[in-house]
Design brief:
Oligomer: single chain
Distance between the termini: 33 Å
Number of helices: 11
Structural class: alpha+beta
CATH topology of the largest domain: Rossmann fold
Shape: globular
Number of domains: 3
Helix content: 25-40%
Largest sheet: 6 strands, mixed
Strand order of the largest sheet: 5-4-1-2-3-17
Order of helices and strands: EHEEHEHEHHEHEEHEEEEHEEHHEEHEE
Strand content: 25-35%
Radius of gyration: 20 Å
Number of strands: 18
Length: about 350
């Protein structure tokens, strides 16, 4: 049986990876990890581990120890802050553990973990994207005059919706800039049509599938989505995928764009699984399963197809015993955790 570690199982990304593996029917033993002992995903895996954050000095030794103890075959990353760490430490950890880490090369990861470098990549390669500028640019006043409000202010480094502000005037702009140490300022695309696209690459960086979803957001995460062809968006995603292929992309990459009067404008590329991974798997575009089959089982992949449909996300609860909660908080791990989901909705 194949053993896989899914990291960040307190997030919708990590939990989506778990769901996708379960949907696939593959015989996989899932080890979950997270920094919080009361993360729901830890209790829905075959075994759960509490590990330190990726930025701590103890993380590498901890993940190596778990991989060795559990004879792990593959690491699937479910936490955005861990992606740069694993890209940089991939060769060393794979040498020490023989566990394969699914992550793109450091050049791709470092580019798209940085919103300014992402903008430069998109602009340099001829893709439609929001005008972006750094706070300390000498051209900031001219930029504001040309682009106008509202504007988006977000951290230069990292992903997710934390510390992302839409500002409507200079007072709000100064307030937002005061809350972010190293921000970028970006043109706001005043359209409701937002899309997320998944692109999957094999070990040769060949494109093995593109799926597009029109989405609605709640607190920064997708809570409604329509899976369809969306030809105009998909054509742009194909162009981006071809550029990423030439740059050595591997595994899943997630692209976000909004429709403007000039067509799709791409504003974010994340070289990792998405918070909509489980959605996609349900519509037969199962990226974690494809990763296991190709990178671990050695299968050649056909083009990943998808069916069309609509998904609506809702809250769900995981119930555990007080004893299990106390156990993982004390011991830092739990084997075959006893948890329950009430199927009453």
């Amino acid at each position: 049986m194949i053993t896989v570690i899914v990291t960040g199982v307190g997030s919708n990304i990590g939990q989506g990876i778990i769901k996708a593996i379960r949907m696939s029917g593959l015989r996989v033993r899932i080890i979950g990890s997270d920094i919080n002992p009361l993360s729901a995903g830890l209790f829905r895996c075959d075994k759960g581990y509490v590990l330190p954050p990726a930025y701590s000095g103890d993380f590498k030794d901890s993940i190596v120890t778990v991989c060795k103890d559990e004879n792990v075959d593959m690491i699937l990353i479910g936490s955005d802050p861990e992606v740069p760490f694993f890209a940089g430490a991939k060769q060393e950890i794979e040498r020490l553990t023989e566990a394969f880490i699914l992550v793109s090369n450091p050049a791709i990861v470092n580019t798209f973990h940085d919103k300014w470098e992402s903008f430069l990549f998109l602009r340099r390669n001829g893709f439609n994207c929001p005008e972006t500028i750094l706070r300390d640019s000498d051209s900031l006043k001219d930029y504001i005059k040309d682009i106008g409000f509202p504007l988006v202010v977000k951290p230069r480094v990292g992903g997710g919706s934390k510390n992302v502000f839409i500002v409507k005037d200079e007072i709000e702009l100064e307030c937002a800039l005061g809350k972010i140490a190293d921000p970028v300022i970006q043109e706001y695309i005043d359209q409701d049509d937002e899309y997320t696209a998944g692109i999957f690459f094999d070990s040769s960086s060949d494109i093995k599938g593109i799926i597009t979803m029109k989405r609605e957001l709640l607190s920064g995460t997708t809570y409604r989505a329509i899976v369809d062809d969306f030809p105009v968006v998909k054509k742009e995603m194909r162009r981006i995928a071809e550029s990423l292929s030439r740059n050595g992309a591997s595994g899943p990459i997630n692209v976000q764009c909004r429709m403007s009067k000039n067509g799709p404008k791409t504003f974010e590329i994340n070289p990792r699984f998405s918070g909509t991974t489980a959605f996609r798997a349900n519509f037969n575009f199962n990226e974690p399963a494809a990763a296991i089959r190709h990178f671990i089982m050695g299968e050649e992949l056909e083009e990943l197809e998808y069916s069309k449909g609509i998904v609506m996300r809702y809250w769900e609860e995981v119930y555990i015993t007080l004893e299990n909660g106390r156990h993982i908080m004390k011991e830092g791990s739990i084997e075959k955790p006893d948890s329950e989901i009430k199927r009453v909705f």
